[in-house]
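sorry for the late reply, my laptop died twice this morning and i had to redo everyting from scratch. anyway the thing you sent over, i finally got around to it. pasting the sequence first so we're on the same page, its 394 residues, then the predicted structure underneath. double check i copied it right bc i was rushing
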Amino acid sequence: MSNIIRRSLHILINVSERETRVAMVENGILQEVIIERTSRRSLVGNIYKGRVCRVLPGMQAAFVDIGLERAAFLHTSDILHESQTLLVQVIKEPIGTKGARLTTQISIPSSYLVFLPYSKKVIAFSNRIESVEERKRLKEIVWHDNYGFIIRTAAEGAKDNLLRADMDFLCRLWKDIKEKEAQMPPCSLIYKELSLALRTIRDFRGSKLQIDSQDTFREVVNFADKFIPDLVPYIEHYTGEVPLFELYSIDDEITKALQRKVELKSGGYIVIDETEAMTTIDVNTGAYVGSRNFEETVLKTNLEAAEAIGRQLRLRNLSGIIILDFIDMQAPEHRHQVLQTLEKCLERDQCKSYISEVSSLGLVQMTRKRSRESLAQQLCETCPTCGGRGRVRR
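ok and here's the structure:
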């Protein structure tokens, strides 16, 4: 049976003139929030005809003008020269003083596939498609002599005609992109990624999707009817008197996600400090004293903290280098248990992460792929008095 519908996932889309907000609720708990301002739509996925403005041979990189305020950064082993034009795709948003990050390895996602125009005859699979027979079936359908594809999780169990329609759509889209590349001048936008609402319906298969804007509801239904017809019955236009996000206490959860301290049910807590270089998360027992011995108290607090950290990483969209300071554990099996819990909590995370073993200092180092600004960077401004340090001189 297709796993297109994940019944534990409930998606809420709130639309206003200023922004679109998407909340992902799993089993009644808010796990992720994505915000896209109308005046500042996400650039990730956009394809540009760029012009090389500066080459950095020692770094095998170049700065490329794609028509934005700041030149974008391209890391490549290919030999480039100034004023050269090339097709590039944004893989990371401009963050702070840094320009966008680019790649020449174009990839375009659709409902069931990811199109790889420069990877001839390459077929890759989502790790969640485990059946050998299903992989064989999908490979026979998707095989193409000129292009490569990644087969997404949603393709498992999908009908042959839907997969072939996806392939045809992507091939036609690529032909259109190449024609525009030949016609348009350098520093031009060639392909614009879908809006947040449409990316959501494409990338996340929820058992229920509620939208509080009639226009956006119609847009999403039309898109789903064309590309993902199985989802149309699960899309609902919310018309209640109570605002959608207020109904599910989403705004309260967002406010909590902007605070440093996160309380744990046991009485312990974690403290999250986000800086430009890295994010640190400190675990404390707080008021929790346990009922048997100190080692069990530490283990229970760390396990609860690991679950909270997994959620907070997604909710706050924390990325880059992250240092976790769990309470010291003497037993190796306890350290292993805590790491396993953290890894399990991140299994549903769309952003890739890497988690190290506990270091000699008792720290866990991890990285999480950065693709857009964190929740705090999107919603908050740096304090002009303390410069973001949280201190005011006496």
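The radius of gyration is 23 Å.
thats about all i looked at so far, will dig more tmrw
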